[in-house]
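User: Hello! My lab partner asked me to get a predicted holo structure for this protein. The small molecule is zinc ion, SMILES included with the sequence. Please write out the structure tokens.
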Amino acid sequence: MAKQSLGYTELEWTCPFCNTRNKGRAKVCVNCGAPQPKDVKFEQAAEDKPVTDSEGLEMAKAGPDIHCPFCGTRNPATAVKCSRCGGDLTEGERREAGQVLGAQQSKPAADVICDYCGTANPAANTKCKNCGSPLRKAAPKPAAAPAPAPAKMNPAFLIIGAIVALIICGALAFFVLRGTQTETNVARVSDVNWTRSIVVMGLAPVTRNTWADQVPQNAEVNYCEQRERERSAFPTGNSQEICGTPYIVDEGTGFGEMVQDCEYIVYDDYCEYTTVELQPIGLLDESGSDLSPFWPETRLEQDQQLGDRRETYQITFEVDGESVVYETTNAAEFARFQPGSEWQLEISGFGNIVDIQPAP
Ligand SMILES: [Zn+2]
Ligand SMILES: [Zn+2]
Ligand SMILES: [Zn+2]
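Assistant: Hello! Below are the structure tokens for the protein in complex with zinc ion.
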């Protein structure tokens, strides 16, 4: 984020003794003459008008003012002696600076009504144009509606939720118990089946997307479009500046700097391209219903390769007139199950085969 200055605006401070609002550049209260105490902060004016007079601009940029260690009067950063008492300012304390006071108020502020005579005054005025009494600060602009408070949970929902949780726990416990209970059965092999397959890899076109500078050399670019690639603090050949809401930073001089945080959206070409890559283009497979599985015959064309191999074996057992299927990828295990042979199966509550032993 790069900071951009939009110039300076004059702040205000309110006299704690007579409640009069004073312009930022006033070192002492225009009404009662009291110096601005160090702990009386500057505030944004009702409307942030840019400072245009050269004297004001010079004051704004001079660096935080110094409070006289003897009488407390605010003096400009460049002063050596207090303008009020002549005291030496080298031991004086500089005002704090750099605090963000708020978003820039660039719209004209509403008039302020005098509490004493009811006259409408421009918000920038510190004294009533009719009766001369001090004017209070213009009411701040209504802030954005606060986020709605999180809705309170209806107690009925809590009760229903608790009941549902209980049911789920009960069901889980039931299934876990059932799953651990097993039954031993004598079974006969009624069917054996196998499948073996090999993936064939070949060169074929494939479409992908990436930034123009990352498209592979041999690829054919189909089309490109401009997209946001990154954010940058600096402008580039193809970028667009975006800035946040301007805000006011207390300079400690009675003036605030109007600042804006900006960055650049950097655009680039994002392209779709087609390239030729080795990828699965076919499947060779064999299957059978015996105990002699074999791999498919492979005849490869130029630029083709063999990919992943898969083998699955299924043994169907007859248990009390019902069929139970056992599946494995182990060819040696599969070879043991002669059709018609008898086995002792341990079957879980879910109907899964947990253990297989030769029948005694
Ligand atoms: Zn005063
Ligand atoms: Zn002094
Ligand atoms: Zn008045």
